[in-house]
Amino acid sequence: MTRSPVLELSIRFIFLAAIIGSLYLLFAGHNQPGGGFVGGLVAGAAVALRYVFGGIDEVRGLTPFQPWTILGGGLLIAAITATVPLAFGHDVIEVSSATVALPLGLGTLKATSALPFDAGVYLLVLGLVFMVFEAFGDDVVDTTADGEASP
What we know:
151 residues, mainly alpha, flat
């Protein structure tokens, strides 16, 4: 089956735009509505678009990591970020912030502990989407005992 070059270019452009939008939601989410969960859902929708266009091989080609590695890494990041405040006598998921003056007069940068937690949730949701496509996205070939495909 030959693919339309115009459709392929359009899908790649839409995929890239959706990933950039999901990253915007991730970074803006700790100050506004959005965050890791919504950003992960938008990135998952972009992966679904690639699946509709190219099948499971297209989805598998998006990342060199296994889906459970992405999911587990996200869960680990979110869990560590959520529990670190306990070591300092604070509540679970208590948000702290730091302000750093940037060189060359570029202003200041405010970083909060909510961002790594949101990044972990983002990776967790995205890993779950990859796992769903890995589990249900492949064509299953049912063979009989003698190796012939059944009707």
